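Before surveying the methods themselves, let us examine one representative protein, pairing a chain with its fold in C-alpha cell form.
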Amino acid sequence: MDWMSEKVFNQSELAKFDGQAGQPAYVAVDGTVYDVTGVAAWSGGRHHGNLAGQELTKVIDGQSPHGRKVLKDLPVVGTYAD
C-alpha cells in the first residue's frame, strides 16, 4: 500500500508546501493534491501569479488555458479536505 496516496491535507497543511525555502510545491485540484515541484513552470512555487500550497480548482477550470489535461502527468501525493 502506498501511504502517500492516503495523506489528507487541509488548508493549513497544504499551505506548508509552497515551494519556498526548499519545501516541495503542492497544489490541490478537485480534492486531489498534486506535486508540481519538478515542473519548470512552477519554479519557486509560482506559476502565472498562482502560488503553490493552495487549492486551485477554480483557477485551473476558469483561467488556465491548458485546463486539467496537465494534471494527468503529475504525481499525486494525497487528497484535499477543506
In short: The mean pLDDT is 93. The chain has one domain: 3-80.
